[in-house]
């Protein structure tokens, strides 16, 4: 009695026959590597289980090639337990010894352990990065004090260049975004307020939202995407071209020459961008209120001055300076962390932008909770 089950194109084969003593003999032939079994692993497993039984004799001496993938399929057919009658090639013994050493569920446990290790590593990386950014902030503070003692060494060109790039060149995009956000906010809130007969409160809502939260937040988000990525790419390119090493050889401080001008420029430029974004947001809110609720521009401005306290404006400007410093520190940190290759440059720039955006949102949430009663 003889039966044969073969995989497609004869790469993996199973022969089943009866010996002279009536015992079932199963021969595994062909190739049992990942290339041979990856297309139909379940089919192979079903065929092996169909012809096998606990008392069968397994002959594996005629296998041409086997790896962990093929061995796992056969091991599953054996129900994770080696049969009593098995003929193996000597060079394949280690495969089955390793599979036998695995306990049921160990793979899942190993995956869970690996996941826990990855999470722990991510947390440690975040803590290490935070510590490095705080250390960079301390170095910036010390170098800034040293520059105040010797005004001749203040890098004025670098500071003004940062102000121009982060401030003047961001006017167009920040103004458009602020204007559109003001219109959207006024339209959406006005529609809801009109249903309850409180149309006049659109001035309060638009003023507080734009001056206190949306203006600084939008300016910081745009700044992180534009100027933050540019800072990281600039320092990273200096790492790739060897300019940072040349500065170290010449005794030029990286922090004083690169980080301090960017931090000061950001702290000056971003509050100005916040003012412009707030202004365009208010204009957009006025236009939306006029079109949606027929509120006159003069009436809107009069209500804005009377209902929105001035501390909200200063609070928004202070957040703008803080966000500018935060974006500068994070961008420079990731720039110095780039390795001298182009792949690391692109990955580092992406990480810098994502981290800066996350940090800005996190700090904004904390400030909103801590200073919730300010200017109310």
Mean pLDDT level: 82
Query: How big is the Rg?
Result: 34 Å
From the N-terminal CA to the C-terminal CA, the straight-line distance is 93 Å
> Which percent band covers the strand fraction?
5-15%
| Alpha plus pi helix count | 13
> How many separate domains?
2
Measured as a percent range, the helix fraction is over 70%
Structural class based on helices, strands and sheet pairing: alpha/beta
What is this entry, summarized?
This protein is α/β, with parallel strands linked by helices and 376 residues long. The protein is built from 13 helices and six strands. It is elongated and about 105 Å long.
How is this fold's topology laid out?
Blueprint: E1 2-6, E2 12-18, E3 24-32, H1 34-37, H2 41-51, E4 57-59, E5 63-66, H3 68-77, E6 86-87, H4 93-101, H5 106-149, H6 156-166, H7 171-195, H8 201-241, H9 243-249, H10 254-293, H11 297-307, H12 310-336, H13 342-370
Parallel strand pairs: 3-4, 3-5, 4-6
Antiparallel strand pairs: 1-2, 2-3
Helix pairs in contact: 2-3, 5-10, 6-10, 7-8, 7-10, 8-10, 8-12, 8-13, 10-12, 12-13
Q: Main traits of this protein?
A:
single chain, alpha/beta, Transcription Regulator spoIIAA, 2 domains, six-stranded mixed beta sheet, disordered N terminus
């Amino acid at each position: 009695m003889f039966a044969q089950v073969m995989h497609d194109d004869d790469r993996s084969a199973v022969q089943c026959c009866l010996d002279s003593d009536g015992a079932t003999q199963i021969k595994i032939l062909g190739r049992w590597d990942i290339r041979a079994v990856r297309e139909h692993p379940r089919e192979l497993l079903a065929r092996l289980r169909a012809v096998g039984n606990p008392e069968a004799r397994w002959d594996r001496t005629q296998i041409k090639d086997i790896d962990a993938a093929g061995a796992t399929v056969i091991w599953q057919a054996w129900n994770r337990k080696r049969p009593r009658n098995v003929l193996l090639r000597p060079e394949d013994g280690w495969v089955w010894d390793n599979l036998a050493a695995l306990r049921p569920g160990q793979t899942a446990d190993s995956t869970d352990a690996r996941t826990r290790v990855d999470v722990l590593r991510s947390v440690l990386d975040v803590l290490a990065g935070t510590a490095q950014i705080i250390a960079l902030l301390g170095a910036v503070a010390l170098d800034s004090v040293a520059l105040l003692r010797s005004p001749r060494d203040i890098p004025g060109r670098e500071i003004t260049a940062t102000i121009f790039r982060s401030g003047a060149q961001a006017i167009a995009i920040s103004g458009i975004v602020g204007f559109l956000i003001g219109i959207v906010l006024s339209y959406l809130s006005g529609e809801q307020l009109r249903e309850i007969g409180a149309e006049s409160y659109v001035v309060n809502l638009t003023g507080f939202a734009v001056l206190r939260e949306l203006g600084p937040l939008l300016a910081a988000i745009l700044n992180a995407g534009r100027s933050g990525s540019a800072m990281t790419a600039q320092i990273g390119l200096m790492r790739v071209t060897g300019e940072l090493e040349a500065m170290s050889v010449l005794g030029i401080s990286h922090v004083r020459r690169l980080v301090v001008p960017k931090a000061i420029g950001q702290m000056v430029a971003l509050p100005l961008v916040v003012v412009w974004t707030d202004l365009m947001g208010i204009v957009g809110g006025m236009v939306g209120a006029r079109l949606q609720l027929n509120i006159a521009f003069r009436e809107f401005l009069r209500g804005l001055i009377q209902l929105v306290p001035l501390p909200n404006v200063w609070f928004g400007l202070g957040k703008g300076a803080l966000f500018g410093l935060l974006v500068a520190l994070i961008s420079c940190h990731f720039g110095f962390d780039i390795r001298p290759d182009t792949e690391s440059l692109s990955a580092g720039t992406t990480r810098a932008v994502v981290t800066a955006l996350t940090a800005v949102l996190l700090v904004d949430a904390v400030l909103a909770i801590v200073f919730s009663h300010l200017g109310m």
